[in-house]
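#lab-general

N.A. 3:47 PM
ok so I finally got the sequence cleaned up, no stray characters, all 266 residues accounted for. can someone with queue access submit it? mine expired

B.Y. 3:52 PM
send it over

N.A. 3:53 PM
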Amino acid sequence: MPKSINKYLAVFRALIAYAQSNGIKVSDTALSSYKKVPIFDDDIKAKTYLNEMELQALYNMKLTGLKDRVRDIFMLGCYLGQRVSDYNNLTRDDFTTTRRGNRVVSFTQEKTNNAVIVPIIYDNVYAIAQKYDYHFPRISHGVINRCIKEILAELSVSVPSLRKTMRTAITLKEQLAENQGRVSFTRDAKGYVIKPRYELVSTHTARRSCITNLYLSNRFSVSQLMSISGHKSEKAFNEYICCSSEEIADVIAEIAKCSASRSDIF
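B.Y. 4:20 PM
back already:
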């Protein structure tokens, strides 16, 4: 997909620059080549998140076996805002308290090696931890992705918002399978592929859900949320805020109301 192409191009350009800085002869045109490809809305896979009502419904589902374990591990990501490599590898030692006695999860992120301290805002985190006596099941990324879609498809019977369709891009692999007649995709009147929200959920949706829900709560600053998520740049952080224009308008309106109230008081 175009976004992946640009990621690889960026890495390749960095490699060329690194080679040059280490005395390796580089063509004069090399650093000016390999430009990013344009990305249009139609090239981007749809992003979704689970709101707090949907998360509670997921938490309350009666599940057994593998699906029960997948749901619990996925929920940890939704409550802590971390990558699957982190929320799928928590241990008892990661759960601690601050000097003021506040409950937190403290660990070093695997991908970036950033040390983060995440406050435990949701009591469900401790309920899940106690369920397994802090010996959390280890489940592969692929299994979580497959099972969470099946779980949410079942949940969509009682939570209709999960069945809402969204326009999305499909991968080259999916395009090839469609051309060969091995799969078929539902399309809207304009020919774009549409999928129900439950099919768009993956391990990364957990991180996106936590960040978006905390942002929409209008209780925390961006810098505070970045401290929790471990992001170093606001640009990268903003990629995880999955809000509609209406939701953003509501946040702005609430901030305006609070400001007006404070003005009235003072």
